[in-house]
Design goal:
Strand order of the largest sheet: 5-6-7-8-9
Order of helices and strands: HHEEHEEEEEEE
Number of helices: 3
Number of strands: 9
Amino acid sequence: MMFRLIAALRTAKTLSAWRRTALAVPAVLAGLLVADAALADARTAVVPKRTIYPGEEIDAGQVEEVEVTNPNIVKGFAETIADVSGMVSKRTLLPGRVILVSALREPFAVSRGTTVQLVFDSGTLVLRAAGTSLEDAAVGALIKVRNKDSGVIVAGTVMADGTVHVVAK
């Protein structure tokens, strides 16, 4: 019985070259399909080329996209240069480290202490006045502004053109 087993193993070891090739081709094709699927799932991350300091506006020349090789990387990082271009850094960004979206903000449309135009719109009534911004703010933010004529502090929403639309109480 043992002799038959050994003989069977010897014949299995001496497969013809043609048969080995026929068995290897599907294995290689399966490996290529798995590698292709892995490349399709490849993610990219944006990393700075140099140190970027807080308050500095990021442009496309300061960053580059790299392939993510760590499967355990923290969530919430920028994946394309378009995600970070034009944004302002809230923290120091080090070269070669991923940029978290939470470390970025929109640029301020209104700076603290600058003169802005206050607009109150109530149907057919439109009032305009000059005011001083008491806070830095991006477009769409609610800020407090001091009316230059009366000294009254009002709240309003910053618009894209730099005006502040006053909120009715």
